[in-house]
Design a protein that fits this description.
26 strands; alpha+beta; 16-stranded antiparallel beta sheet; Beta-galactosidase, Chain A, domain 5; TIM Barrel
């Protein structure tokens, strides 16, 4: 985190025991309230803050603009804040600062306290945080901060000790709201912030989820209509690794089918989902041009795999890149250039950049990240997937890296996934569409996520809305290979024995022969699930 090298002299407003400051941020500058133009009126348990002018440059220069806030007292010393602002240029962000606080220990996704480094601690939603909610432990109790935003726009939270001014040495929390980059304007209305004292973490989070259920489309698991009946009977997922980025084959289509046969002899195939990462050839390299891989058995071999799995009752789920394609593929020019994912200031988004070739350079210029809301990419991906579904009759689709998000000024990424899934399921009510990872804005779109506690902290409340299967970063049971996944190795562990996890077994070359006892044991556990 960076800080200004001077005291910004942000005016402080005291309301119901909270000391608050506000900043209005544009692409060009950061503004605070002009203290000479502030009025604060109280009416019972409500306050009306008005400021008819802004300042910049640490208060040295006045500017046109305004900020108004309605503040109302909540239970147990809490506060609800509605903010509107205007500025000389389009506004990207409005920051609420909570100041003059004791030492802070922000809680993680599992409500465990963390220390704050000297340079501060910053958490981003939705890239790290899964809800627009933050809690910090103090010696006087837990403080809570959450935003009731039905549009799932970006938020950031940070904590630090102030270095300059009258409050130097005291702590501050920043709560930042970003406008949708498609809608930047010189005026903004910020969704309500809710501040809480003596916070009960479970209760505070439940309030946020209740808001999302009532206003933002969040749907409890039992009420979902995008979950085919057959998918509710799943008890076991098989991760059948195909071809690594390097071209190394873990399982060709015949080997995948051999594993499926073994499993279907021990558990009813109707309860099994066969997940196929790297089925189309070189993992990630082939993204954007999905088809059966000749070296793995070609179209005939893939058709045999799908047909025989279906005859055994097993459901086949190939993996597709939801937002990534190889820019060096001959077909890329037809859908890629107008679809690049980008930041609000139009920096091209470069994504995860794995060290695919072990050059240690992490230089993946061929790996283009595309916005699923961009019409050209959405249409092309829909075309490729539906063509393959028609040809091979698989009844599930996995979309990779859907958790990746940026505030794209052209197309909303979350809305793009919603549209993509609707197009894929149009006329196919029995199609299951799953995705990687989760945050609250994706929970209404995908009923099952690839996820593991080793990859991301997973709080139990997620099970109210979705189910989780093992991630491909999980090591398989014979030697800890992660198959097509870039990390290469991870010690094998079973998934937690909890209702929202679907037991998952990963297979590379040698797994079936080298880990048969563990495979049979997990099958036995899966069969016992209700």
């Amino acid at each position: 985190m960076q800080f200004y090298s001077f005291d910004a002299h942000d005016p402080i407003v005291e309301v119901a025991g909270w000391k608050l400051s506000f900043q209005v941020i544009t692409f060009e500058n950061t503004y605070d309230m002009d203290p000479d133009r502030i009025t604060l009126e109280q009416h019972g348990n409500r306050w009306h803050l008005r400021c008819s002018g802004l300042r910049w440059g640490g208060g040295q220069v006045q500017a046109k603009g305004s900020l108004t806030a309605m503040l109302s007292a909540e239970d147990n010393g809490g506060l609800r804040i509605s903010i509107e602002a205007s500025a000389p240029e389009p506004i990207t962000t409005v920051k609420l600062l909570i100041r003059d606080l004791p030492p802070l220990r922000p809680l993680d996704l599992l409500d465990q306290p963390r220390s704050v480094p000297v340079d501060g601690l910053l958490d981003r939603y939705p890239n790290v945080l899964r809800l627009p909610l933050w809690m910090v432990a103090t010696d006087i109790g837990i403080l809570g901060f959450r935003c009731e935003d039905a549009q799932y726009r970006a938020k950031r939270f940070c904590a630090y000790a102030e270095r300059m001014g009258a409050l130097a040495g005291r702590n501050a929390v920043e709560c930042l709201h970003d406008e949708d980059a498609r809608c930047f304007d010189k005026t903004i209305r910020v969704p309500d912030w809710v501040l809480s004292r003596q916070t009960d973490p479970d209760g505070f989070r439940t309030q946020q989820l209740a808001f999302s259920e009532a206003h933002a489309g969040l749907i409890p698991w039992e009420q979902r209509t995008d979950m085919p009946n057959w998918a509710r009977d799943l008890k076991l997922v098989l991760t059948l690794h195909g071809m690594h980025w390097s071209g190394y084959i873990f399982n060709d289509y015949a080997a995948m089918l051999n594993t499926i046969r073994y499993i279907a002899e021990r558990i009813d195939g109707r309860h099994v989902l066969a997940y196929l990462p790297g089925w189309e050839g070189r993992y990630y390299w082939q993204y954007g041009d999905f088809r059966p891989e000749p070296r793995m058995g070609g179209a005939d071999g893939f058709a045999r795999l799908c047909d025989e799995a279906r005859a055994l009752g097993v459901h086949v789920m190939p993996m597709f890149g939801g937002n990534c394609a190889n820019a060096w593929m001959p077909n890329f020019h037809s859908f890629g250039p107008p679809s690049y994912m980008k930041s609000a200031t139009r920096n091209v988004f470069l994504g995860n950049q794995p060290d695919w070739n072990l050059s240690r350079a992490h230089d993946t210029g061929w790996q283009a990240w595309l916005n699923p809301g961009a019409p050209a990419w959405q249409t092309e991906l829909t075309r490729q997937i539906t063509t393959l579904m028609t040809q091979y009759s698989f009844d599930a689709v996995f979309l990779d890296t859907v958790e990746v998000w940026t505030n794209d000024p052209d197309f909303n990424i979350r809305e793009g996934y919603h549209e993509l899934v609707e197009r894929l399921r149009a006329g196919r009510p029995e199609l299951l569409v799953t995705g990687e990872d989760w945050w609250d804005g994706l929970l209404p779109i995908f009923p099952i996520f690839q996820q593991t506690a080793k990859w991301r902290q997973v709080p139990a409340w997620v099970g109210r809305y979705a189910r989780l299967m093992g991630h491909i970063c999980d090591g398989e049971a014979s030697r800890g290979s992660t198959g097509v996944f870039e990390s290469g190795y991870a010690p094998y562990e079973r998934l937690p024995d909890e209702p929202h996890y679907v037991p998952t077994l990963a297979f590379v070359d040698g797994t079936l022969a080298g880990a048969r006892d563990e495979i049979d044991a997990v099958i036995t556990l899966a069969k016992a699930r209700s």
